[in-house]
Amino acid sequence: MCIRDSHEAGVPPIHTPLRVLKALPEEIKKKTLLVHIAGKDVPDDIGIKVAPDGLQNTVVLYNSKEQFGDLLQKLNLLSSIPLLERLSIRTIKDLSLIHI
């Protein structure tokens, strides 16, 4: 499950007002954790969980470079070859799937 960690909720303009967060689509709310706000300050009907405190509850967010590092490395290699400059996106995709 993808979670979007929000430094959110509280007094505007620094934080997003709870009424704005409450209006988010349900699919976004399910993937959102509120941080830097006390659970007691978030109404039950908002539909967004408050991130629990403590190091044991750390949420790890993955960097897309780590997730797609090999692909980016291949694309950088392909883009550095002048002969391949005019290839279609489809051909580039096919070349990027080659295991090197």
3D structure, described in words:
- This protein has helices at residues 18-22, 26-30, 64-67, 69-79, 89-96; strands at residues 4-7, 32-35, 49-50.
- The model has no long low-confidence stretch (mean pLDDT 77).
- The radius of gyration is 21 Å and the shape is elongated.
- By secondary structure, it is an alpha/beta fold.
- The protein has a three-stranded parallel sheet with strand order 1-2-3.
- 6% of the residues are buried.
Label the structural class.
Answer: alpha/beta
Q: What is the gyration radius calculated from CA atoms?
A: 21 Å
Q: How would you describe the shape?
A: elongated
- Catalogue the unreliable spans: none
Q: What is the rounded distance between the termini?
A: 30 Å
- Averaging pLDDT over every residue, what do you get? 77
- Strand segment count: 3
Order of adjacent strands in the largest pleated sheet = 1-2-3
Helix content: 25-40%
Sheet with most strands: 3 strands, parallel
Following the backbone from N to C, one meets helices and strands in this order, namely EHHEEHHH
Q: What is the subunit arrangement here?
A: single chain
Number of continuous helical runs: 5
The proportion of strand residues reads 5-15%
